[in-house]
Specification:
Blueprint (H helix, E strand, L loop, with lengths): L10 H9 L11 E2 L3 E2 L1 H13 L12 H5 L3 H9 L1 E3 L9 E4 L9 E7 L2 E6 L3 E6 L2 H6 E6 L5
């Protein structure tokens, strides 16, 4: 590859990398495939596989977003990813969820199929789950990974 050429990262490459995290145990604030991660660590790990390690987040508690009401997760996603409309959502996109209306987004996953996404959740680790009506009701925003590296 020349200095001027950029390699395209495909949706299939992103999905393949994301699925390689399946079975990683849940570990708060971690981002290490096979050893442990949380939902943010999963997204950071997939991003890092293609574009290098993003900024290291400050220490955060499980209820961090409830405490200050700021859209910290969405703001961080906006620095590295491109926001998409929900109508444009497709496999390989990052999904952010709000657990309660009026609260900031504080959970993330990666859409793998039209109706299934991968996420890391306390008690279950990284797993593929249905994008059920409950998750649809809590979907806050959608982001796309960069196209080139």
């Amino acid at each position: 590859m020349t200095d001027n050429a950029m390699e395209q990262v495909s949706e299939a490459m992103i999905i393949g990398e994301a699925l390689s995290w399946r079975g990683t145990p849940y570990k708060h604030q971690a981002s290490c495939k096979g050893a442990g991660c949380d939902c943010l660590g999963l997204v950071r790990g997939v991003y890092g596989a293609f574009w290098g390690e993003p900024e290291k987040p400050p220490a955060y508690s499980p209820d961090w977003a409830d405490a200050n009401g700021q859209e910290t997760l969405k703001e961080a996603a906006s620095r590295y990813l491109t926001e998409q409309s929900v109508d444009a959502m497709k496999p390989s996109h990052v999904l952010l969820f709000r657990y309660k209306a009026g609260y900031p987004a504080k959970h993330a996953g990666i859409l793998i199929e039209e109706d299934r996404f991968l996420h890391a959740q306390y008690g279950s680790g990284v797993s593929l789950v249905s994008l059920s009506p409950w998750w649809w009701r809590h979907l806050a925003c959608v982001f796309a990974f960069p196209t080139f590296r």
